[in-house]
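So, read this over?
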Amino acid sequence: MSQGKTALPPLDYLLAFEAAAESQSFVGASKKLNISETAISRKVRLLELHYDVPLFLRGHRSISLTPQGASFLARINPALKELREASRAIVAEHKERPVTLAATNSVAALWLMPRLHRFRAANKHIKIMVVSSDRDEECLSEQVDLAILRGDGNWPGFTSRQLFGETIFPVCSPAYLEANPQADDIAMLPHLDLIAVAAQHPEWMTWQRWLSHVGRQNVEPKQAALFNTYPMSIQAAVDGLGVALGWAHLVDPLIEQGKLVRPLGDEAVRTDFGYYLLRSEAAAPFDECRIVEDWLCGVSDARKRFAS
């Protein structure tokens, strides 16, 4: 037998032959493969010429397999089935899987969202679904692949890596400071318009706690506005409503943009808490998840450092 007859024919010839044999009709095969009857007939004929073997007996309006055709179909069916299974498997294994990333409202709005466009520009094939919530149980649900939460780094059942620490200082708009120059005096701060947050976590840094940390104990600070989310309190400060507590890394971009200033200069409180990237130890990380995790850790490694 010549080399041409031992070489594999084009796959579409084999698929046309298989469809025609199973349908016992070129018309049926054309419907199954969504190509014309003429194309089916031509591919089958080319397959017969390739092997120089008749595969069908052709009647006026019917076809039937020759003994050689029936034997050939039995031989190629398992191979075509294996090819289909392999094709389905590789698509399933490498199908783009979105990464669900949960974060507190403050981190999602002020730290994560401003950086996502850079990640998307470099990783267009990866989809990130962001869940913004201040409820730990929602951020740590089984549906979440990665989470960024505030704490001490200890979450049983989760691996954790600190993205940034917790350094806190007063911030206000340049216009507010200009109208209230006494804001640069820590003794006067409790008497100014202080913006507060009604936090769900008892260890959240309040104005009273912050003032106590800097030596202003037993002070009842004046409260100008109370918000239920931290991003709203920061927006209020940007809008000139008063002085808010700024978490470094969350408000740094607004300071760099000149939307906020630090009226007390370098005066700040550093706590033992921080913001951590969490991943469940029970869940096997997938490729897209690893890429997002590595990106977040890379952003963390390049962050501005604050003294303890």
Notes: The longest strand covers residues 158-171. The CA atoms of residues 27 and 268 lie 80 Å apart. Strands lie at 56-58, 63-65, 99-103, 128-132, 146-151, 158-171, 194-197, 223-227, 244-247, 269-280.
